[in-house]
């Protein structure tokens, strides 16, 4: 019985060429204690053409922000998880606002798995400027970063009424059909 020759393996797909540092769109600090969330956010931010720095908590975030300011290279935005041990995102946002003294207001965007009534308001009340629920859509993250980084002075801190729904409803089953019943 003759053996059939297998098709040659497809060549590996080359990753997208990295964007040179000189043409990056800005610096984003990612504050999240979950390594998987850190990786997802970092890859998305990098894909959008920003430079990302990742820290695991509020105290590290404050140290990174102070160091960036000392080097005259401040972050253009912060992506902030809300639920972290030690110093949560709300406390960290308030600490950042207390630390800012008449300087440019750094946009803080909440990235949180919380999707309950009042959570968005809590984020805004703590000093955050915008809110995205996890899991977020890449397009939503990209447009939010673009809005805040490209011209942050033109945007006042958001109020809850001006933001899109915190927890978009997932589509239900098609009308008139049961999601569990198979067609006959």
Defining traits:
single chain, 184 residues, alpha/beta, Rossmann fold, five-stranded parallel sheet, 5 helices, 5 strands, disordered C terminus
Give your account of this protein's structure.
This protein has a single domain, classed as Rossmann fold (3-Layer(aba) Sandwich). It is built from five helices and five strands; from the N terminus they run βαβαβαβαβα. Helix 3 links the parallel strand 3 and strand 4. Helix 2 runs parallel beside helix 3.
Please write out the topology.
Blueprint lengths: L26 E5 L3 H13 L3 E5 L2 H13 L6 E4 L8 H11 L8 E5 L6 H7 L4 E4 L4 H13 L34
Parallel strand pairs: 1-2, 1-3, 3-4, 4-5
Number of E-type strands: 5
Provide the number of structural domains. 1
Order of helices and strands: EHEHEHEHEH
CATH superfamily descriptor: Response regulator
Name the overall outline: globular
How far is the N terminus from the C terminus?
A: 44 Å
- How can the largest sheet be summarized? 5 strands, parallel
DSSP helix fraction? 25-40%
Can you give me a brief rundown of this structure?
31% of the residues lie in helices and 12% in strands.
């Amino acid at each position: 019985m003759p053996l059939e020759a297998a098709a040659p393996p497809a060549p590996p797909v080359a990753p997208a060429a990295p964007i040179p540092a000189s043409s990056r769109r800005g610096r984003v600090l990612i504050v999240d204690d979950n390594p998987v969330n850190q990786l997802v956010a970092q890859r998305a931010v990098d894909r959008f053409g920003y430079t990302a720095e990742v820290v695991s908590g509020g105290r590290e975030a404050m140290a990174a922000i102070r160091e960036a300011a000392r080097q005259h290279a401040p972050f253009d935005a912060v992506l902030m998880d809300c639920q972290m041990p030690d110093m949560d995102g709300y406390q960290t946002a308030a600490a950042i606002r207390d630390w800012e003294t008449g300087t440019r207001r750094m946009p803080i965007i909440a990235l949180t798995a919380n999707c309950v009534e009042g959570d968005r308001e809590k984020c805004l009340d703590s000093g955050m400027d915008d809110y995205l629920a996890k899991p977020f859509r890449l397009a939503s993250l990209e447009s939010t970063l673009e809005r805040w980084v490209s011209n942050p002075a033109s945007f006042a801190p958001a109020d809850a009424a001006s933001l899109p729904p915190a927890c978009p409803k997932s589509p239900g089953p098609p009308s008139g059909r049961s999601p569990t019943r198979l067609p006959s």
